[in-house]
UniProtKB/TrEMBL annotation:
The gene is hgdA. Keywords: Iron, Iron-sulfur, Metal-binding. The keyword Iron applies. This is 2-hydroxyglutaryl-CoA dehydratase D-component. Its cofactor is [4Fe-4S] cluster. It comes from the Bacteria. Belongs to the FldB/FldC dehydratase alpha/beta subunit family.
Length: 440
């Protein structure tokens, strides 16, 4: 864990002198991206819908505009209109057991209006199954509704820690075919210079985003993991945009300034630091946050946010980087990511969302939880939730689970203080796992 800083009670973070607050700058980025898509649509240009982890750098080589159904669905859910669209999709024949994002998106694609952020209907879709295979059917259905092309990049499950060269070879072939499809769609040739510029900006954005995420390691933290959730739209929808890179650099600078000045966006006592696992329940963010605030529990480790920090230097490295998504990597990778973050950021417990909308993510969690308890010696509790469908979240169950976690952490904290031990997980007080001896 990073060095301990002195927090000054009652003093709030301030913007970098001469700049608007980073949060405002980043909100402006998303507004501009969606506004640009609408303007392009009005000019008669092609506008696509893209999955969040599609290598959008390829489409940027053609100057194409894209918007993101996952981002749109999360915003719709957060603004309390997700349930209505989910039910509309169910009335269309889609089962309520499929992803809430997909149901919201399919209803919107079919013409169901919403008062949340609007996006133009698609002229093509960009799909990538490194999130989950349900994405394929979701986007196929959108393509059929609108009778439009679907450009698909198949990224099979990553069942080894290292990405094998033969898999990279396969993905390079996928990239080449996607480029061919984009050339046919646009009537343009692949622009190498535009592609290189998009990659350069994407890496700058990723570096700034990961740097901002890293400030959770300070004790006390100059931010809460919930702050990062508020910026997910930018890292999803604008990672090839220069103003997104600048916005995240400004955000990291604000966190650095907060460290020096002893301020934090987390304005409450930091009695405990925890890892929050999974995608937030967007319709109930306040319900998630309130019990933590009341008990002085700050979220200082999340895997969902930094998972979008794709970094690479070559096209082959780009192919390998896009293989590394939380739901598409082997369990050894999933455990190592989270345990390293828990050690670096100093946590004393974990809270897990068993997300009904994201079964690939939740399906691995019982084993991952077991390893946390064994390797990190921390209490872990979970709750039933959903990223978009509020019917699958119980406020009272969540409060009970948080209270149980707090009680265990209080007991352990008192015991460790009495023994003169560090109250948080770190590299010194946890055992290292010998992955060569690990079996699934």
């Amino acid at each position: 864990m990073a060095e301990t800083i002195q927090k000054i009670p009652g003093k709030k973070p301030r913007p970098i002198e001469g700049h608007i607050p980073a949060a405002q700058a980043l909100r402006n980025v998303v507004d501009r991206v969606y506004g640009a898509a609408w303007d392009a649509k009005k000019r008669g240009e092609l506008v696509g819908w893209s999955s969040s982890k599609f290598p959008i750098e390829l489409a940027k080589a053609f100057g194409l505009h894209a918007v993101y159904p996952e981002n749109h669905a999360a915003t719709t859910a957060a603004k309390k209109d997700g349930l209505r669209l989910c039910q509309t999709a169910e009335d269309m024949g889609y089962d309520n057991d499929i992803c809430g994002y997909a149901r919201i998106s399919l209803a919107y694609a079919a013409g169901e209006p919403t008062d949340s952020r609007k996006m133009p209907q698609p002229d093509f879709v960009l799909c990538c199954n490194n999130i989950c295979n349900m994405m394929t059917k979701w986007y196929e259905n959108i393509a059929r509704m609108h009778d439009i092309p679907m450009i698909m990049i198949d990224i099979p499950f990553q069942n080894t820690v290292d990405v094998p060269e033969e898999k990279v070879d396969y993905l390079m072939g996928q990239f080449e075919y996607a480029i061919h499809q984009l050339e046919k769609l646009t009537g343009k040739k692949f622009d190498e210079k535009k592609f290189e510029e998009a990659c350069k900006i994407a890496n700058r954005t990723a570096a700034a985003w990961l740097k901002a995420c890293s400030y959770m390691a300070y004790e006390p933290s100059p931010l809460s993991g919930f702050d990062l959730f508020n910026h997910m739209a930018d890292i999803v929808a604008a990672r090839c945009e220069i103003d997104a890179a600048e916005g995240f650099e400004l955000l990291a600078a604000e966190y650095e300034q907060s460290v020096k000045e002893g301020t934090s966006t987390w304005e409450y006592p930091e009695e405990h630091r925890i890892l929050f696992e999974g995608i937030p329940c967007w319709p109930g963010l306040r319900h998630l946050f309130e019990p933590l605030k009341q008990n002085g529990v700050n979220v200082t480790a999340v895997v969902y946010a930094p998972a979008f920090g794709f970094q690479y230097t070559t096209v082959r490295e780009m192919a390998a980087a896009y293989c590394k998504a939380p739901c598409s990597v082997c369990i050894e990778d999933g455990v190592e990511w989270r345990e390293t973050m828990a050690k670096e950021n100093g946590v004393s417990g974990a809270l897990v969302n068993y997300n009904r909308s994201c079964k690939p993510w939740s399906g691995a969690m019982p084993e991952i939880e077991r390893r946390w308890r064994e390797d990190l010696d921390i209490p872990v509790v979970h709750f039933d939730g959903d990223q978009a469908d509020e019917r699958n979240f119980s406020d009272e169950q969540y409060k009970t689970r948080v209270q149980g976690l707090v009680e265990i952490m209080n007991e352990r904290k008192a015991d460790r203080i009495a023994k003169g031990e560090d109250i948080y997980t770190n590299f010194e007080n946890t055992k290292e796992t010998d992955w060569s001896k690990t079996t699934i």
